């Protein structure tokens, strides 16, 4: 392990009209808040600026026009063009909404009653679909979901990326979205929370009980950090994972066991989270499951009765206990204990074996990750003669870089989380890959010396998290001038902004763009949720 001078990085070898108003400024801080969670500064503008503003508590009859980013329904108030956003309103749906809050120059409403359903209504198979924060669009046919996602990417690329419709069309830049073949049971990881306050829908509030009847294990209701929607089964996770969830639900409230959920106010209580991860035995292909209890202290004797029940489920090969004594609500433990079986599970991705521990990052939809990584490989276009250098930015546990290493001369991966770097090195070893170097460091804090420790790459892969790339990294890439950049994004708004910078430059900062956008490929990794992944190919112009 070496330290890079200058930046302290460690080397470890192994078309909606109102959108147009945003065109003038697309810095991260100026993206509208419903396109990025990172800003509250710029908000959607209505067609005609007006003094009209609905009052808080006022009810309005509305028709949802389209789905905006994050899956909120975009509607306009009749005669005024005033924009309101409504969670779970779907295109074509006519409904009554109650104004809950003002956000800049638009308002948010909650749906009170549907007058007539949307165009592509389907019955949601999950009983929690109307409340759960996990899935928001189960009531929309899958074809309509992917169409809406494709449309959002298209709009953002035009309005934030500043690419013209003609350019996108004439050069076939915008590719049709790749749907996910498996629309349920696709998640290999779910994290449920234990809570001392059960979230109940409005109509059931009168049924609220006290004591352990109010305990819940499930998902946080949207907007409530302290209330948990009790979930007995989640249609997004695997069947064996649902068996474990049912087994825990069956007994954890039993007063004889002395188990209590952690209370986020009093900070008293034992059980914080239940994390379920599904992998595969790489030799047999049989699913294998890791169960991880996140608790506020280390008291394995309290978990013993649960262990007996869970370990009887044949797919369970690992039961872990992450102890997190902090008042925060994260699942990352300060200490980790193996209570049963092994401390990690395995998964296969593009012919490689990956070892997954309780806290390591791994693509959550393995099936669609195969599709995504194949697209990345195709975009990277490695000649396969082992002569090219790949720079894998935001490499996580090294999965993308390692899948490319087989055809490259060398892969250099950069990532902020030390544990992910350790996993990347382990994964390289596990697959006998020796031409990969993983480096821990913060890509938002690079300086002039960044780049001195690796040769000029032929291909850059950049897969940032939601805020996208820092301007320092954009500057670096524009100076580096690698022949090809494959930009993988989980946020099409910040992706569009970064593509704009890389291709068109940033005039006010005197930065010139030098890339040409060759293709944008949206991929649906998470059916029924608002998330959209994109793979973009840029070439030196
Ligand atoms: C979307 S994930 C991509 C992971 C990986 N490429 C993959 O496909 O599994 C983004 C990664 O960027 C890392 N990251 C976030 N901010 C970073 C920063 N400032 N510097 C370096 N890495 C960062 C995260 O820890 C995460 O692993």
TrEMBL record:
Asked whether the UniProt record includes S-adenosyl-L-methionine among its keywords, one would answer yes
Where are the residues of the annotated region Disordered? 33-53
- Catalytic residues, per the record, are 490 (nucleophile)
Q: Which processes are annotated in GO (biological process)? A: RNA methylation; RNA processing
Q: Which residues form the TRAM domain?
A: 53-113
Annotated signal sequence range:
none
Which keywords, in A-to-Z order, does the entry hold? Answer: Methyltransferase, S-adenosyl-L-methionine, Transferase
Pfam families per the UniProt record, alphabetical: tRNA_U5-meth_tr
UniProt-listed SUPFAM superfamilies: Nucleic acid-binding proteins (SSF50249), S-adenosyl-L-methionine-dependent methyltransferases (SSF53335)
Binding positions for S-adenosyl-L-methionine per the UniProt entry: 363, 394, 415, 463
Listed GO MF terms:
RNA methyltransferase activity; S-adenosylmethionine-dependent methyltransferase activity
Classification via CDD domains: AdoMet_MTases
According to its UniProt record, which protein family does this protein belong to? Belongs to the class I-like SAM-binding methyltransferase superfamily. RNA M5U methyltransferase family.
- State the protein's name: TRAM domain-containing protein
| Lineage of the species this protein comes from | Eukaryota, Viridiplantae, Streptophyta, Embryophyta, Tracheophyta
């Amino acid at each position: 392990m070496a330290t890079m001078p200058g930046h302290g990085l460690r080397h470890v070898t192994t078309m909606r009209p109102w959108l147009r108003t945003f065109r003038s400024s697309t810095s991260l801080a100026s993206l509208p808040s419903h396109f990025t969670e990172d800003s509250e500064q710029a908000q959607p503008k209505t067609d005609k600026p007006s003094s009209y503003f609905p009052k808080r508590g006022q009810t309005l009859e509305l028709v949802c026009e389209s789905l905006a980013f994050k899956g909120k329904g975009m509607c306009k108030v009749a005669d005024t063009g005033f924009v309101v956003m409504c969670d779970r309103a779907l295109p074509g749906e006519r409904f009554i909404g109650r104004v809950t809050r003002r956000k800049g120059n638009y308002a948010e409403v909650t749906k009170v009653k549907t007058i007539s359903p949307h165009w592509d209504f389907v019955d949601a198979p999950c009983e929690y679909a109307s409340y759960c924060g996990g899935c928001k669009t189960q009531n929309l046919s899958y074809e309509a979901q992917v169409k809406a996602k494709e449309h959002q990417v298209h709009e953002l690329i035009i309005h934030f990326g500043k690419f013209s419709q003609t350019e996108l069309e004439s050069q076939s830049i915008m590719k049709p979205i790749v749907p996910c073949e498996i629309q349920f049971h696709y998640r290999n990881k779910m994290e449920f929370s234990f809570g001392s306050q059960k979230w109940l829908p409005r109509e059931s509030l009168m049924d609220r009980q006290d004591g352990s009847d109010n305990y819940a294990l499930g998902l946080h209701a949207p907007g409530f950090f302290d209330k948990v929607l009790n979930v007995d089964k989640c249609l997004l996770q695997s069947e064996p994972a649902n068996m474990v969830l049912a087994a825990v639900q069956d007994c954890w409230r039993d007063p004889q066991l002395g188990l209590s959920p952690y209370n986020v106010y009093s900070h008293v209580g034992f059980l914080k989270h239940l994390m379920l991860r599904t992998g595969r035995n790489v030799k047999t292909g049989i699913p294998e499951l890791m169960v991880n209890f996140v608790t506020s202290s280390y008291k394995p004797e309290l978990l013993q009765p649960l262990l007996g029940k869970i370990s009887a489920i044949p797919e369970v090969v690992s039961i872990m206990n992450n102890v997190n004594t902090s008042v925060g609500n994260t699942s990352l433990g300060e200490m980790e204990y193996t209570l049963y079986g092994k401390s990690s599970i395995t998964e296969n991705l593009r012919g490689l074996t990956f070892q997954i521990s309780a806290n390591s990052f791994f693509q959550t939809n393995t099936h669609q990750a195969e599709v995504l990584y194949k697209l990345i490989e195709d975009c990277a276009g490695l000649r396969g003669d082992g002569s090219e250098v790949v720079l894998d930015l935001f490499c996580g546990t090294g999965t993308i870089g390692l899948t490319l290493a087989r055809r490259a001369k060398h892969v250099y991966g950069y990532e902020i989380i030390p544990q992910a770097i350790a996993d990347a090195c382990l994964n390289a070893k596990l697959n006998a890959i020796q031409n990969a170097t993983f480096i821990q460091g913060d890509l938002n804090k690079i300086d002039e010396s960044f780049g001195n420790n690796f040769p000029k790459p032929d291909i850059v892969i950049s897969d940032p998290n939601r805020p996208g790339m820092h301007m320092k990294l954009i500057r670096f890439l524009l100076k580096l001038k690698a022949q090809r950049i494959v930009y993988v994004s989980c946020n099409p708004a910040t992706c569009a902004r970064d593509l704009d910078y890389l291709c068109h430059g940033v005039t006010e900062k005197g930065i010139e763009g030098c890339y040409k956008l060759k293709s944008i490929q949206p991929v649906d990794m998470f059916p029924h949720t608002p998330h959209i992944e994109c793979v973009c190919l840029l070439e030196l112009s």
